[in-house]
Protein: Transmembrane protein
Organism: Adineta ricciae
Amino acid sequence: MNIQQSNQYLLQSRWAIQLALCGIVIIFLLVSGTIVLGLIPVYLTTNDVHSSTQFNELSFYTIYSSDVIYGRFQTLSDPNDLSSQLTKNMPDLSRMKTIPGEFLTATPSNKQRRQTSDSASIACEGSTELTGDLFSTKNMIELPSTCHSSTCREKYLMKYQNNIRKYNHRLNVDMVLDDSVQSNIQMAFCAFSSIDPNERFPSSACKSGTSRYIYIIDQDANFFQFNPRTSATTLITSLTCSTTAYPYSMAVQSTGTVWILFTDGNLYTFDVNTRQCQATSYVSGQEGFILFGMNFINDYSTNTELLYITSDTSNPPFRLATLDITILEISIVSYYNSKISARGELTKTLDGRLFVLFEGQPFIIAEINQTTGKILSQTPQNDLRYASDASNFAFTSYLSQFFIFVGDQTYTDIFLHDTRSKTTTNRTRISNGIVGSGVSPCL
Ligand SMILES: *[C@@H]1O[C@H](CO)[C@@H](O)[C@H](O)[C@H]1NC(C)=O
Ligand SMILES: *[C@@H]1O[C@H](CO)[C@@H](O)[C@H](O)[C@H]1NC(C)=O
């Protein structure tokens, strides 16, 4: 803590003026420390201690990470099954009650964010490979009537939390979607919270939405809904944004607004609900960008959403840039290293990492550092081979998988790449040239 640092500084300093300054700093720290310490009981009183003195009970929330996206659209097939898993292995349940909770509109963070930060993600205690929506349960411990001291309450809290860490480390539950598709969902212990995590992550405006689809667009401006579970493709509408140009790429904002780049370099927005297209005042050609692949990335810490773009073959060197959609201005992030000379399509994973699918013989999935533009990894897709500018393609992350849409402009093969096993499988072929894809929790 700072007082210690100040003490060391005090010993080391030689000049009287510094001694005097240190004295002032120490007094300031002691005073502010007293104020902070004075505030802590107030904070605890409103949360935990108040209820525990009244009912002599402790409550907290246990947060699990899962492998499901849009988990809030799912319901437990059998609530008793989850309850029994939560209690099955617990060595001592005489004082603890657990209420199975619900999915949160939040995902685990791979960065060590402070848990109190107002972000739609939470740092798990350990690393978890399950990066889907978080799920919370509420735990209540009935304390002995004699247990009033904070030491005693802490002892019980530690005991039960350690048991949860140890015995409820992994769960496995069946859930159903409202279209009655049943799925088996993995969950892993993530963290504890003393406050209701639903208050920390207010439900998004899209909670009542009904869709869990990927949206895709073809080069003839047909806009489809693609079902990632069944591979069914459903036409929603044919866009009439432009009479002279064709769609080149597409990105979907988290709010559901679809952004489409046309072959003349103009950007349009499309509202899926009203099926209306709208021109933007974006000026093509900034920083040499006319055609590009694109995807949005949220920065929850600043509550902003930036469109990341990657250049095409017309104007090398190949580069990564951002397009700020509030001012419609492009800024270069960086140039790729010289080995990259291909068009790309961008996507982001649930844990916020940026990936590019580069066209080529073979195509390559590469992870890119969004701050530096540095290529962090490359995974060649040996079955996917098209020469420069010869293919139509699109790329979207979904759960722990990537959907790759690629064809020779007369058809599209739809591939599923599993990021864990690094295998790519061919799901189906459709007779449209898909050039853009994206997802949004609001669609
Ligand atoms: C990206 O680069 C920045 C700056 O060098 C670094 O702080 C960050 O950890 C990197 N992120 C990844 C995912 O490598
Ligand atoms: C992918 O599968 C479809 C049929 O499902 C087939 O027509 C197509 O040739 C396959 N593509 C490749 C590259 O193997």
